[in-house]
Amino acid sequence: MTTSALETVKTLPEPVARRGISEAQWRTLMTSLYPGAKAESVLMVIDYCAARKLDPLKRPCHIVPMEVKNRAGGYEWRDVVLPGIYELRTTAQRSGVYLGHSAPDYGPLETAAGVSAPTWCAMTFWRWNADAGVRAEYPVRVLFREVVATTKDKKANSRWSKAPVQMLTKCTEAAGLREAFPDELGGEQTAEEMDGQRAIDVATVEDKPAPPPPDKYGDVIADLEAVADTGLDALEDVFAKLPDVHRIYLTTIDLATWDGLKARAARATGGTL
């Protein structure tokens, strides 16, 4: 553990305390569950779990370094929070209508991406339909060659090379749970499915021209720049009072500016996020 990470745990950053996270919880997250992760990335986990009503100490999601296409046309590495298969199972169980799934069925072995693995994995998922009074079935089949994560030389990455059947089974389960529970789970892929992949959906979105900033956005940035030099607390307070349209634009479309403001405020405070 680096000295900076140790200091982050000891000092308990104000944004962590404001979220109601204790020192013991923060230490566990930083040193045991997400060792080596940046503090701001662990904060993303806490916010993600709060929004989904999950316990971050059960590690329902993962911090995944991912290449995301930027507006300049190149790729840059960012930490992205993605659900794990555990979260999908938990959410399905909480619905009260999940009736489980069949044992996985596998296709014949083939050599793909440099490893021997089943051609496909198939499972059937069951959900109770109260309106019809029947058990609805959701059969899913996933092809190995379509989900295997590869390196630049088109070979399976280390995780898929070591456990190709396990990874294929997890991807099939994730696909089946999304099929049976679209409203509860949405369309976000799991960390297991995105392991070693680029964030294709994000790249597609960023290829489009960015929408124009909302009215008086320049004044808002000027106010935030002025207060950033007084520290993180002041910056967070002003940000929280902004209209939703300004906060959303700043943290999605103009994220680089927001990250710069936070870094500037952190330097003024003499600490870290």
List the helices and strands and how they pair.
Blueprint: H1 3-11, H2 14-18, H3 23-33, H4 39-52, E1 61-69, E2 75-83, H5 85-94, E3 98-101, E4 105-106, E5 109-112, E6 115-118, E7 120-129, E8 134-143, H6 144-147, H7 158-162, H8 164-180, H9 182-185, H10 191-194, H11 200-206, H12 217-228, H13 232-240, H14 244-253, H15 255-269
Antiparallel strand pairs: 1-2, 3-7, 4-7, 5-6, 7-8
Helix pairs in contact: 5-8, 12-15, 14-15
Please characterize this protein's 3D structure.
The protein has 15 helices and eight strands. The chain has 273 residues and is of the alpha+beta class. The chain folds into three domains: 3-59, no CATH class; 86-206, no CATH class; 217-269, no CATH class. The strands form three sheets. Strands 3, 4, 7 and 8 form a four-stranded antiparallel beta sheet that branches. A two-stranded antiparallel ribbon has the order 1-2. A two-stranded antiparallel sheet has the order 5-6. Helix 5 packs parallel to helix 8 (164-180) and helix 14 (244-253) packs across helix 15 (255-269). The chain is globular. Residues 4-9 and 200-208 have low confidence and may be disordered.
